[in-house]
Amino acid sequence: MTTSMARKTALAAWIGSALEYYDFFIYGTAAALVFNKVFFPAADPATGTLLALGTFGVGYLARPLGAFILGHVGDRFGRKKVLVFTLLLMGVATFAVGCLPTYATAGVLAPILLVFLRLLQGISASGEQAGANSMSLEHAPDNRRAYFTSFTLSGTQAGQILATAIFLPVAALPQEDLLSWGWRVPFWCSAIVVVVGFVIRRKIDETAEFKRTKTAKLPVAVLFRTHWKDVLRVVLAATIASVSTIFTVYALSYAVNTIGLARTPMLWVGVLANVVALAAIPLLAGLSDRIGRKPVFLAGCGACAILIFPYLWSISIGAYGLVFALGILLFGVCYSAINGIWPSLYGEMFSTEVRLSGMAIGTQIGFAIAGFAPSVVAAIGSGRDDWLGVAIFTAAVCALSATAIATGRETYKRPTAELGRLPQEAPVGASLGR
């Protein structure tokens, strides 16, 4: 595989993921800051916040279903078809959120429509990263797979930067303007996603590794017959995404709605942490190409488990300087050791015939659990001084993910064509036909 093709594919994955996850993350920011007042005003403030964060989790609930469907399409008919479809679906669903009536004008129909569109977002996201990661991994040179696949996740961070940054001027609006029309603007901007993303994804070439592989008629059946242990391992490991959802959604809501910190500085914490992550992700991924996936991933899990304690404590006492420093270190650096590695780490567990299905199903079940983490910890930390229980929950999730990976095999030195199978084992789709 030529390096130029790997670079082209990585760039396309980066741009596509940035656009896709801009849409996905603006929902999380709006859920933390606005939706409790716009769609659930009849509830008391604490319950309204809990319901708003619950709709954020609904998007993750749809991911496992979407993973089965889009995983089949990607492994049976090609990665490119999945990548074009997911981007279009995400763009349309997100634009529609910005057009929804509020609870004041439509009553209970408003939150029902909100949940439906969030489900569509979840289905789209279920195939996005697995498709982009599979394509980048299969185009990459054997000795640089982590580096090139990491661009999908750095694109995700860029999307998160855009999603948070666009809310900075919106959040500064007077409360009346914010709740009437201001919150809609970031969602309407997703129209750009549809146009730009479609053009980019249409130009991506299918991987040579996929083209020369005989695919199974039912890839999911092959996956669970030959790789069920790896699927389970990825499910458990992927719950580490709880660190991301707790940092980006719960901590923001806790700081603004419970402690009373200003919206704008807390949004800037996320922006700066993600800017640092843009540089940290490829650097740490490149490190894993030299020393292995497991050491870097496990170090990231351990550091996140420790730093979540002082980070939430600093929010509880309103120490802005500590919040910025610890937030950037936690999410910008330490979580990047996880984000930069998992695309290659998970993808290398599966053979080409079932890679997209394996990554999609495993990660999306784990991410579905992580998606409800803000709701779970909001119930745990319902008061001003209950941050400790939230930190303990987060650390426990980090320990679970670390255990799943520590007990697995190291794959960074194996050639791409041999990934996911025992030595001298024939490709799993060889006798199954196209």
Could you characterize the architecture of this molecule?
This protein is mainly alpha-helical and 434 residues long. The chain is 77% helix and 0% strand. α1 packs parallel to α5, α1 packs antiparallel against α11 and α16 runs parallel beside α18. The radius of gyration is 21 Å and the shape is globular. The relative contact order is 0.16.
Number of distinct helices: 22
How far apart lie the N and C ends?
23 Å
Low-confidence stretches: 423-434
- Biggest sheet record: none
Taking all Cα atoms into account, the compactness measure Rg is 21 Å
- Content of β-strand: under 5%
Query: How do the helices and strands follow one another from N- to C-terminus?
Result: HHHHHHHHHHHHHHHHHHHHHH
**Overall body shape:** globular
Quickly give the structural class.
mainly alpha
Care to count the β-strands? 0
Percent in helix? over 70%
Mean pLDDT: 87
Brief synopsis:
The chain is an all-alpha fold.
What are the main properties of this structure?
434 residues; mainly alpha; 22 helices; globular; disordered C terminus; membrane; cell membrane; Sugar_transporter_CS; transmembrane
Detail the topology: elements first, then pairings.
Blueprint: H1 3-33, H2 35-38, H3 45-61, H4 63-77, H5 79-97, H6 103-106, H7 109-139, H8 145-171, H9 175-180, H10 185-188, H11 190-202, H12 208-211, H13 219-226, H14 228-238, H15 242-259, H16 263-291, H17 293-316, H18 320-339, H19 342-347, H20 355-371, H21 373-380, H22 387-406
